[in-house]
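AEC family transporter
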Amino acid sequence: MFASLFAVLAPVFIVAGIGYAWARKGLDYPTDFIARVVMAVGTPSLVLSTLSRTELNPDAFTSMAVACLLCTLGMALAALLVCRASGMHWRVLLPAFMFPNTGNMGLPISLYAFGEHGLALAVAFFLTLSIVQFTIGMAISGTAASLKALLRNPIVISLAGAMPIIFLDFELPRWLANTADLLGGMTIPLMLLTLGVSLASIRLRHVGSGLLLGGLRIGLGAAMGWAVGAALGMDTLERAVLVVQSAMPVAVFNYLMAVRANREPEQVANLVMCSTVLSFAWLPVVLAWWM
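Tokens:
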């Protein structure tokens, strides 16, 4: 069991650790450029590549999308209760609880733990959450959100392109499938390197509250994923992916949005860092339960 868990988590921690060490040494890393490449090219290619290679039936995709929406709504309600108890502003805590790191961490872990089919299910969760984050999430955080910007988002465009593959059994031309495989292959390593670089730039303050709220985000996320999966009658693999994706730490993207909106970015950075550190101890427990 330990060897299996190590095989799953080691690539994630090692690559993210390389990014962290790279940034701490002061070496140049064009974060903005890499993030744009991953967002505009890598992630859409990964979506097309994964869904074209994996037999993910429409029912499974729809079920995961619905489960994602229910988990997001449940975490929003939980965040409002925590805000009421802690006195934190709801615009700060709500996005942090609703939008976990299902991309940089969730996709690699789902791939290494559950294989290509698990990655396809994780992609369905990630796509659904991304649409919510780029609309409702941006409005909550206080940054501008528009239908035009959503329709021009590369991840949303890739979702539109994936629909015929999932629901109409459409096959990509071989040249396009090979191109998507090639470009999609760079995405997960770059995501993990960028995660490490981003964490290196965050400075911790108020560690106690960060650990408490970060732990709540992870624990409640796992419980929400399990409850929603049970309520929807998901099979073992689907529920495992749902729990893992729901239990991810706070996404770095929430920090970027807080900076843009000038909405207590240091507090959000604290949540990102503390929840990510806690996830290093929590994820082996979650994976050991399902593997």
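The radius of gyration is 18 Å.
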